[in-house]
Amino acid sequence: MKKALIITYYWPPAGGPGVQRILNIVKHLPENGWQPIILTVKQPSAPAHDESLISQIPKNCIVYRTSTREPFAIYKKMTGRKSSEAIPKNITIDSTSISFTERLSRWIRANCFIPDARIGWKKHLIRKGLKIIKIEKPDIIFSTSPPHSLQLGAMALAQKSGIPWITDFRDPWTEAYWEMQMPKTIRSKNKNKQYEHKVLHVADHITTVGSGMKTLFCNKTPTPVSVVYNGFRDIVYDTLPTEAYEIVHLGNLSAMQPLDELIQAIEILPSDVKNKIRLVFVGSVDPHHKNTLKLHPQIPVNYHDFMPYDKMLAIARRAAMFYIPRLQSNYSKGLITAKLFDYLALRRPILAFTESGSDMADILEQTQSGKAFTSNQQREAADYISYYVHKWETEGQTTLKNQSRTSSYSTQANVMLLVKQFDSLLLPK
What we know:
Distance between the termini: 22 Å
Strand content: 15-25%
CATH topology of the largest domain: Rossmann fold
Mean pLDDT: 87
Number of helices: 17
Largest sheet: 7 strands, parallel
């Protein structure tokens, strides 16, 4: 069996969407003739912790873990955070609500740790990676980010070993929305662009999560770029009964994801429809959104903190509809949120707010899994909600009968596409 050295910062028991993508890929590699060998860190500074994911790691998957040096202990001390508190990749700046110490610590993080604060893993990654290559003799190196700093270590391994290298991007590099919010100097921005340019040009192949992201990278490099969707795995999708029509959002809801459009759509609804609706959020919700919802007490809301993936899916099975907010960023048209694929697997109608002609809008239309609305289409969104509330009342559920249309977005189908790229790089040139 051929071997793939897979470099990922996030790996179980770390949780979050980045883990789901690589874990789902790894689970299907052996059935396609590839043995995964994981290189990761011992204790990542991850946004979530999920022990339940460990059971999903294939038995024949070899996992190597290394130490790392990161500035988060100092950062937490400076900002008054608890030592156990998770640090997300996308700490943003709001100068009106944070202290001078917080602003200073973020400036240091933005300009002293380039491309990101996980850069301290690089030397550990290279040292351990060279030992793994000597022992395991992998045929391919596959590195997935963010954090994008790991791509610098993967590049060094590829150059030192001569092994073909595929670099995978779940998010943009210099255009990422958290990059737009970081207080980087011009010098730091230029250095970050130089790192990105070198990685994109040295890699043998690039994979990413959607066609919009593919276009973004194709405009930067002649290196071939392919789309490998996050994909969905088969899960139990039957509906659990509820007394309210639950519109559910899974995952963190940040300040850069407006909630006003959904609230306005619900407010348009007649009282007899509105009174049947309950909003459910699983994950952290920005305080501004919570304060906004308090101004609309007639809309019931349930909040759930982050929970293990299997427990989150149990909450999700109660959903009558899923909600995807718009992201305020310069690449939102090409953004495909990872939670979309969980929603496809659960086969409930999806209500999304996106830019016109976005990648997500195309997928929803192609699969007949939902509807995407622009920021000024609250009336149309309200009509969409109303239609499914009446359907839920009369039929007792809103499960979609669209399975054949979603098959191309399964994890299995997309891992087969990735394996084709693996195999093609092994052919004689």
